[in-house]
Design a protein that fits this description.
The protein is mainly beta and 435 residues long. The protein is built from two helices and 29 strands.
Length: 435
Amino acid sequence: MSPLKVGVLLFSLMTLETSTPRPKFLVTTPTLLRYFSEKGIDVNSVSCGFGFTLFNGSHHKLKRAIYGCGINSDGQLGHQTDHLHGPISEGVQVDLVPEPRVLQIPQTSTMSPRLMSCGRAHSLVVYQDVELNRPILFSLGNNTFGQCAREIIEGEVFTSESAQVTKVAVPDDLTSIRQVECGQDHSLVLTDDGRVFSAGLGTDGQTGLGVTKCVDRLTQVRGCIEGFRIRHISSRGDTVLALTECGRLFAWGNNEYGQIWPVTDEVQVLEPVELPIYEYVGANISAFPEGFTIGKIKRVAAAGSICGVLDEHGHVLVWGFGCLGLGPQVLQTPAPALIPPALFTPALPSSDNRLVDLVPGLHHFIVQSKNGLLWSWGAPRGGLACLGLGRVSNKGVDKAVKNAQTYPVPLSLPAEAVSVACGVDHTVVLAKSFA
């Protein structure tokens, strides 16, 4: 893959282009974000938050840096001099960065950005110090609940003008980082050796620490995941899914809609619980298509009130409440249900073009096939723009599903998708030219 052929496409409730006289509030089809190609910046990865986006990019002069754009109400993009502040013509009060700008993070020549994640109003960024051979974690934005993993200061006001970047004090034994994941108001750090650390809001148990109070220091999540090597975590809202190296599934946090289905008498699950998905499928095989066999789970996706998994064959199973992808008649399922594989044609299970990634937004999902095809579904609160289907709502349908795409629909992309990031009302795709 030639880096010169890689581009960034986005579709969203709101995007900003400084070449136009005023902000463009809707982009309903995948649209090339020209800033990076025009500036000669190669984008390596993307993360989407609640109205803002981070890009890990490299330039022959700046080398590698983190770029950000979008809402900066709480300083989640750090201090930026080029920003819009105040009311705009539509009467909306904004505090935002209109096009990608470098995040002003203190770094040395031996540091290079590796990982990042965006929450509701905070961000996490991981740099690798090649001289010290260890990661350095920075946090930005709102810390009301300790989600930036620094001391909670009562009455602290968070604005773009008072933005600060914090070098997070990590535990001594946290010497490597595989993934960072920001939920709405909590943060998760996954180490290379499979341990999970958390901080932030805990009212729904989303920190997994056995308490509902806020925690402002990264603390290891223990309980029944101890002894397992966690390889992937997901949390867009207040529910957390964790996948082990051997394919076992654990969860904690919000359970109001049956996201943690083995627990039926608690709406907040304060510590990790195993979800015995293989046993469930085996015991209820009659509820699945004839010949169905679940493979090893490869990806997990925790949205606001819906959870999903993707297995090695390319099957997608979902559960919870909302726009599940099972059609307009199924808005809740108390245990995993299979999205009909035919909906993802030609990316059929076990084929060379099978599904390989499942990405959650807060209220929508995107799946990606091995050769870069995409499908989307969901019921985003602001309309269907972030699904990339060319429309904001469905016409001539019941009001209940007007702003819902209840089953997966293929996206028409002018390029081959490499990776996808979903926010609350926008989606960004890193793509390359067709071979």
